[in-house]
Design brief:
With 534 residues, this protein is an alpha/beta fold. It has helices at 14-21, 34-41, 57-62, 81-86, 99-115, 117-125, 151-162, 176-181, 189-195, 215-219, 238-247, 285-303, 322-343, 365-377, 390-396, 468-478, 509-516; strands spanning 5-8, 25-28, 46-49, 68-71, 90-92, 143-147, 166-170, 185-186, 198-201, 225-229, 250-255, 274-276, 347-356, 400-406, 414-422, 425-433, 439-444, 447-451, 455-463, 483-489, 496-503, 521-529. It has a seven-stranded parallel beta sheet with strand order 8-7-6-9-10-11-12, with helices on both faces. A six-stranded mixed beta sheet has the order 14-13-15-16-17-18, with helices on one face. The chain has a five-stranded parallel beta sheet with strand order 2-1-3-4-5.
Length: 534
């Protein structure tokens, strides 16, 4: 991380800047135009933004040294995540920092909408006294429809239930059982639209959520429904909403976000029963401090060679599984690195098989597979390969990748098996993690092993007969290469066998060629179990 440089291109709380300045060189340059940003971005290892900077493909293409892009907030729609992924750049956000701020703003908007508070306030300040004009409705026993039941959606539900509202929700990633624990009924979005008196949206803006509230969906809603959006502009078709309010179908709306910001030309601003705020969902002192600290800490962790807690363009291990799965992820990367060097040739397919106790973590194994791919690809490619872009790089090169989870572990409590195919043949490597994190490669092909996957390895296929191993050891000794350990796998004497030697230093190519020429040795391969290129 020596001499790492970080650019902060949007205002960031001083507490976050202090964390950065204690570890790296920091430049704060806000309100940069695209060309200005492109001109300087190549000098930086990390970029921290809020919503003001458009981190598009052109900017990312100019970021030749970039390792990390951090968003001090939840939404990353101002970042071209796909472009960053192709470049192997980690993109992370700070989803927890402004959860309560967005939740409380949603509740304030809902209550203000129900009781016409902003309109009544404005009227009275004009010295008017028009009580009957601002007749409201009670939220008690009303049905609140929550589209998106993530962190903010769940916090909104807790507060709404305290007000004796009935809560229903739609989220494709939340089970009925989990929602029931929180006293919320899960249903389809179509059914939610039909039963809700108030609808609030809490989803990211992605193709599947763009304009989910539109002319057709509004037509299915209750007459007099109220709609709230404190999430992302674009989730609601604003023209359709305007038309529905004018027609009386929708009683009112409370909007903190818009398709175009600022929304100075929006006809919604002309309607008395539309409450608006200028994207204030995360605008609390506490939230801005929290997201700044979160993204700053993640930035430092990545620049130190670690990982970010809230990566948005790579699979993550759930926090409750991290301790259990991290050793297997590290083993999978080493196994991949070993397998591709032993097999040689152009990689065409990869199968990762997770057995035994690992089957209990089926939903989290994508993280392990990505690290196996990193191990397979990194030694043979010139471009940087990491957990972020490993899957993309494999797909780009036509490498087929599959993942299998099974309860079978061939006599072990847990087992990872990586099967690869190249234009020179096939190779299979199996490994396990014992108690206290001891990892071993336990099989290479059909040969059993007890191999520590570290350092420098020589792998030979030879005839199991007297003198073969001794001659190999003599050549290594003559070239001042020390043998630290040896594993031999065989079936019967004088049949083909496999030998793996742990050596203390790299083996030069002339020495490898000399070993290959020894009687009885059919192949000899050198493998580095590190992040060095071969």
């Amino acid at each position: 991380m020596a001499n790492a440089r970080v650019l902060v291109s949007d205002p960031l709380a001083e507490e976050g800047l202090a964390i950065l300045r204690a570890a790296v060189d920091v430049d704060v340059k806000t309100d940069l135009k695209e060309d200005e940003l492109c001109k300087i971005i190549g000098d930086y290892d990390a970029l921290l933004v809020r919503s003001g900077t458009d981190v598009n493909a052109k900017v990312i293409g100019a970021a030749k040294k970039m390792k990390f892009i951090g968003r001090a907030g939840v939404g990353v729609d101002n970042i071209d995540v796909d472009a960053a992924t192709r470049m192997g750049i980690i993109v992370a956000n700070a989803p927890e920092g402004n959860t309560l701020a967005a939740t409380e703003h949603t509740m304030a908007m809902m209550q203000s909408l129900a009781r016409n508070i902003p309109q009544a306030n404005a009227s009275l300040k004009k010295k008017e006294w028009k009580r009957s004009k601002f007749m409201g409705v009670e939220l008690n026993e009303k049905t609140l429809g929550i589209v998106g039941f993530g962190r903010i959606g769940r916090e909104v539900a807790k507060r709404a239930k305290a007000m004796d509202m009935k809560c229903v929700a739609y989220d494709p990633f939340i089970t009925q059982e989990r929602a029931a624990q929180l006293g919320v009924e899960m249903m389809s979005m179509a059914d939610l639209f039909k039963v809700a008196d108030v609808i609030t949206v809490h989803t990211p803006l992605i193709p599947e959520t763009t304009h989910v509230i539109n002319e057709k969906s509004i037509a299915t809603m209750k007459d007099g429904v109220r709609i709230i959006n404190c999430a992302r502009g674009g989730i609601i078709d604003e023209k359709a909403l305007y038309d529905a309010i004018k027609a009386g179908k929708v009683a009112g709306a409370a909007l903190d976000v818009f398709e175009q910001e600022p929304p100075t030309e929006s006809p919604l601003l002309t309607l008395d029963n539309v409450i608006v705020t200028p994207h204030l969902g995360a605008s609390t002192v506490e939230a801005q401090l929290n997201v700044a600290v979160s993204v700053a800490k993640q930035c430092i962790d990545v620049l130190k060679g670690g990982s970010a807690k809230y990566v948005v363009n790579a699979p993550m291990i759930p926090s409750e599984h991290t301790e259990a799965l991290q050793p297997f992820a590290q083993l999978a990367e080493k196994m991949g690195r070993f397998a591709v060097q032993v097999a040689g040739g152009r990689l065409s397919s990869v199968e990762c098989i997770y057995g035994g106790e690992l089957s209990a973590y089926a939903g989290s194994m994508k993280f392990v597979t990505r690290l196996a791919l990193k191990g397979l690809l990194d030694p043979i490619l010139q471009q940087p390969v990491n957990i972020v872009n490993a899957e993309f790089v494999a797909k780009e090169r036509g490498i087929q990748v599959s993942e299998t989870v099974t309860e079978e572990a061939k006599g072990f409590k847990n087992l990872i098996t990586i099967k690869i195919r190249t234009d020179k043949g096939e190779e299979t490597v199996s490994g396990t993690v014992f108690q206290k994190g001891r990892s071993r490669i336990v099989a290479v092909g059909s040969y059993t092993m007890d191999l520590i996957p570290e350092g420098h390895l020589l792998v030979s296929k030879h005839v199991d007969q007297p003198g073969v191993i001794g001659r190999a050891a003599t050549v290594l000794g003559k070239n001042n290469i020390n043998i630290a350990g040896m594993q031999v796998g065989r079936f019967n004497p004088k049949e083909p066998a496999l030998m793996v030697l742990n050596v203390d230093s790299p083996v030069p190519q002339p020495v490898i060629e000399e070993l290959r020429g020894l009687p009885g040795i059919s192949s000899m391969t050198f493998a580095k179990i590190s992040d060095e290129k071969i």
